[in-house]
């Protein structure tokens, strides 16, 4: 099983440039030995860093919003991951229960959740994944109005799970994309 805490999307055939862009910024934030590797899918990179992924996202957001919109050229999306488990339903349920135990979710009975699933190189059924994750959540699931998104990223035999707010995923917006 691969261990990662960041999923990085880039353009096909720009994986090398995105890796360098990520590596440089992780070093600048203090991670002396980030581990960056290919996922086996074109345009998808995985990383394990000692830096909190949300700090990296905040770093990128501050630079692109306040200083240089084109600072990030090859990274299209950064998704933080809280826990990685084997890609089977029992492990998904166990991992989600551990994540909920670690994360102070459900303290408020009005908290709503969304479950987002992305699958790559997997025969698991999306509906099965959603059902198993929903069974672990203490409150309602809603696609439109939610406080937390349970992001499930199935990549072959490893699955990353994260509990995210809407602002926890980074997508840079260059001037070219705004037109």
From TrEMBL:
Residues 64-165 form the THUMP domain. SUPFAM superfamilies: THUMP domain-like. Pfam families: THUMP (PF02926). InterPro entries: THUMP_dom, THUMPD1-like. The keyword Flavoprotein does not apply. PROSITE patterns: THUMP (PS51165). Keywords: RNA-binding. GO terms for biological process: tRNA modification. One of its GO terms (molecular function) is RNA binding. This is THUMP domain-containing protein. It comes from Promethearchaeum syntrophicum.
């Amino acid at each position: 099983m691969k261990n990662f805490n960041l999923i990085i999307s880039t353009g096909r055939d720009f994986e090398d440039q995105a890796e360098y862009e990520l590596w440089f910024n992780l070093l600048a934030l203090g991670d002396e030995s980030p581990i960056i590797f290919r996922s086996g899918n074109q345009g998808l990179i995985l990383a394990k860093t000692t830096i909190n992924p949300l700090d990296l996202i905040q770093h990128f957001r501050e630079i692109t919003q306040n200083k240089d919109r084109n600072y990030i050229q090859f990274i299209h999306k950064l998704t933080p991951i809280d826990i990685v488990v084997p890609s089977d339903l029992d492990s998904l349920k166990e991992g989600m229960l551990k994540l909920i135990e670690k994360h102070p979710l459900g303290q408020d009975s009005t908290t709503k959740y969304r479950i987002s699933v992305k699958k790559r190189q997997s025969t698991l059924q999306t509906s099965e994944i959603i059902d198993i994750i929903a069974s672990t959540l203490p409150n309602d699931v809603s696609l439109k109005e939610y406080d937390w998104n349970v992001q499930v990223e199935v990549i072959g035999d490893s699955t990353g799970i994260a509990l995210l707010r809407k602002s926890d995923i980074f997508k840079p917006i260059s001037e070219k994309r705004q037109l």
